[in-house]
Amino acid sequence: MKKLLLALISCVFIFSVVGCSSKKEEKKSEEKVIKMGFVPLKNSEQLVEDVKPIADYLSQKMGVKVEAFTASNYIGVVEGIGSGSVDFGIIPPFSAVLAQKQSNAQPLLTSKGKTGKSGYTAELYVRKDSGIKSLEDVKGKKVAFVDPSSSSGYIYPGAMLVKAGINLDKDISYQFSGGHDKSLQLLLNKDVDVIATFDGVEERYAKDFPAALTDIEKLASSDTIPGIMVTASSKMDKDLQEKLKQALLDMDKDPKMKELFTKMFSITGFEEVDQTAYNKVEETAKVMNVDLDKVK
């Protein structure tokens, strides 16, 4: 009888331990959070709120909670990916190349633009009443760039000006606005004469700055810039990387999510990365005397 009682007690104890262990594992899984990084395209708090449906979509697809994060500047996201505090970023090509160079970040996918192909262009915009008609006319003017690590907000348009014979440090006065929307506001307020940004900025921010649709015009366009890249920290779990890739590739089957990506980022889908296309980013950075190993 005693042996039977001991056996029963042992079974209860084992099941109790297994049950507790199982609950701990479930709790651990529930508590895991994946950080998704964005560069500051607009006010950080507003951006995090706007991309919440994307975070929710990925949470459902990946089976783990995904939260959005945006730093105060571009390099903050690159550093977050490097340290692992940001698991992956949907970031511009220069930031992506920088992350790969500095911390062996993993290129997962590249984005497709409104044409259905990967890539977009940088633009220099002026007010229609500015009298600025050529790149040479920019000499002596005030220019707003976005961020030293922005592809369309500095690297590519800056290279356009350099190739036109303009010394950025001597021939113009310039500032970094911290966001494409902020640059647009500076131009409309006549605080600067020229801004460097992405194609279609006037449409993207028409709700906040309706005058952009009528009062500004393009001065020049860059060569094609490779698409925005989904870049994973080298510390991100490989299985989760694969789940992330599949979730974004499946976006084509979700009209609402596709519409949101298109509206917010002019992204219509994702495809595998052609790494050779990003060599042009490094070449353009060299025109700007940017050393990728030293950018901080």
TrEMBL record:
Domain Solute-binding protein family 3/N-terminal: 33-268
PANTHER family with a match to the protein in the record: PHOSPHONATES-BINDING PERIPLASMIC PROTEIN (PTHR35841)
Cleaved signal peptide residues: 1-19
Protein family according to the UniProt entry: Belongs to the phosphate/phosphite/phosphonate binding protein family.
Pfam families: Phosphonate-bd
Organism in which the protein naturally occurs: Gemella sanguinis
CDD domains referenced in this protein's UniProt entry, alphabetically: PBP2_PhnD_like
InterPro entries xrefs: PhnD, Solute-binding_3/MltF_N
Transmembrane keyword on record: no
Alphabetically ordered keywords of this record: Signal
PROSITE patterns: PROKAR_LIPOPROTEIN
Protein name: Phosphate/phosphite/phosphonate ABC transporter substrate-binding protein
Residue ranges the record marks as coiled coil: none
